[in-house]
């Protein structure tokens, strides 16, 4: 028998609706999309740019009009620039960014998770990462050239060093922000160390990890120009630096626009993939549930409010007992004295039965009862009468 059995529930709009943003009085933060506002802002910036350039507030040499930038992009696409086509420049930059991102993700996520789970790892790795992370990449660019030469290795290494720190620190923050109650709930249901990591720690840290990857990609694109200073003949950063030497500001703006489009595409892809890849942040379900405390096949934790505990031996009835504290007590993670009851048996001696309870003379909404030898655990289930299967069946 599984730990948690979900019985059919009455579907309502409120229950099916996921947790949404609460509007804040005076700020207007709500659940509506901001895409239209963002598009309007982008169009306003383009219009302001065109007006400043067209009216001559800034010399044309320093600020070409948006239509001239688009025209120059078409020219570069057709004729190329600095001995390479536009696609070759874009492909070279994308190759460096993607390879560096894969290396940074492969190393940064495990290191960050290890720092969040182990204090020794945090003590060893935290100081070096915090020391070099604020340093601008140009400060250690000469060292990359001296140590690794002027090939692709030095460029990719520079990007990796710029990108790995945000990913590592975000993964660590994701683990550190994990509520201990969620871990104890999974341990109470019999979860092992590997299952705790895969089902609890990793899903809970995943939103922070994805945020760190987005930040790291932004840092990587901003470092790309510095990386392509190292004897490069291909790349968007090389194209920008080469054009700036000849005051070809329209080509510079073409390179900036391409980097912005690529960075936005990467960031949007991570943002739109986040809801489906973060089960740890999904809204918890409530309904007609029974918890089998006897058999501990770990499952994903569903929120079940344990409201009261009754001890037949001492005739004690405690109301308002939290589910986490009760599970901690049953599993030996917390002393029984803190919840006013003694634990007479372990999880494997529990049985599931049905009882009609009354609370202060009124019929209670609590109907599912788990009897653990002399202890009765009452679960909050939205039902009037429900008979759970016996463990002996």
TrEMBL record:
It is a multi-pass membrane protein. One of its GO terms (biological process) is alkanesulfonate transmembrane transport. Its main location: membrane. The chain crosses the membrane at residues 33-52, 94-117, 129-150, 156-175, 236-266. Residues 90-270 form the ABC transmembrane type-1 domain. One of its GO terms (cellular component) is plasma membrane. Pfam families: BPD_transp_1. Gene3D superfamilies: MetI-like. The keyword Cell membrane applies. It is found in: Cell membrane. Keywords: Cell membrane, Membrane, Plasmid, Transmembrane, Transmembrane helix, Transport. Probably part of an ABC transporter complex. Probably responsible for the translocation of the substrate across the membrane. Belongs to the binding-protein-dependent transport system permease family. This is Taurine ABC transporter permease protein TauC.
